[in-house]
Amino acid sequence: MGNAGRGAKKTISFWPLVLLIFYGVSGGPFGVEPVVSAAGPFLALMGFLFLPMVWSIPEALVTAELSTTFPEAAGCVAWVSTAFGPFWGWMEGYASWMSGVADNSLYPVLFLDYLVSLLPRDNFLREDGLGRWGCVVCLNLALSYLAYRGLRVVGRTAIAVAVFSLLPFVVLVLWGLPDCTMPESWISPPDGGWGAIRWGTYLNVMFWNLNYWDSAASFAGEVENPGRTYPRALVACVALVVLCYGLPIFVGTGAASVAAAAAAAASAGEGGRWSLWEDGYFAEVAEAITGRWLGVWVVLAAAAANIGLFEAEMTSDALQLMGMAERGMLPAVFAKRGPHGISTLAIVASSTGVAFLGLLGFETIVEILNLLYCFAEILEFVAFIKLRVSHRDMHRPYEIPLGTVGVCLLLLPAASFVLLLAAFSSVITWVVSGVALLIGVGLYPGLLLAKREKWCEFRSATRYEGDVDGADNAPLYGN
Questions:
Q1: For the chain, does the N or the C end have fewer beta carbons within 10 angstroms?
Q2: pLDDT (mean) for 300-328
Q3: Which sequence ranges are marked TM in the entry (predicted)?
């Protein structure tokens, strides 16, 4: 285990950690609406009730054990490198970074979708095209500049953003509960009946809203008493995320005022009741329940939440590239900090990926980032089990109270869900993700050659206790 984080003052306590994890995983119910249009209210509510048991809780438990065992910013790259050596550590870092960039490309799209919900329905920003993409690129550049300037959402700032972003949904739920006079809506199928369920969209959007628990690993070196704080924070955050998603959907689909607004839209030829539930629709739900003032607040909350999510993800992605460069996996230029404490080149690389992915639709991006994330997560699960067997005596401040067979059984449903998700991915998702991973495989020997021939400077990384030994490790751990 590395020494990262030892001797330094621990700055993150329980509630700041809960909020940092919350923003890594959720940030609010923004973007969950397509689950309703794809599968109807019943499966949407059941999904957010049961999928956390299958996926979120096992992933959070694995993160709690490995983050406290490896309290360093390298996070999952350190886990996989220790278990299987540098090539698989590289692939883990590469796939995680690609997935993070794809994830970050969604936040300007979501911001725009909530903004146009306040504009006329024939506004050009509602349609895919160069005009809309140009707006996404401008948002990306502006937000990337904020990340370059070193913007952070931590401590009291994180609490303030969370309160501002979530409070309108508290108002929506409390105001809307007395209006929930249509309980039959909660067991409804999507428009078109049970046979019209779009399983791919349903599973991918559900998964996207309930993953990235392992992002908490990057904070491990800064957490007070991680062996106690991490498990408690993760459990609290799972409960917060489930309530944050489930309650607004429960009220929004059962409220008579929302049903009346949807009926009016349907009579105007804008689609069926549930097909209206696309990203950004919560602003219209809020307006139907309380009036335009809450709809505007939801849009402003979405702006704050998506800006915070973008900044956190962009900073995390850039820091991951910096960390990989510091471990000798990338040229040293990626580790060079700019005037505001973060690598300018890492920001540019991440921002460029965000701009190109902005050409794709919301659901396509979600599928791509999910498939890349599934690859990285399977590596993490296998590394977790391998470390349980090969490094049994390694100090673990927190350990899942199950033996090797027990943790295998714990992870079996989650691994099965990953395979199911992959099976429902579209052809374009497989092609884009496959090409991206093949590029990663090809980059590895290219980077080794560049290091051996001294085409560019690479740093000599510190070897971590417990890392797999042998010749295969040498190219990444030192010259």
A1: C
A2: 81
A3: 12-32, 38-57, 69-91, 130-148, 157-176, 196-213, 233-266, 294-312, 342-362, 368-389, 401-424, 430-450
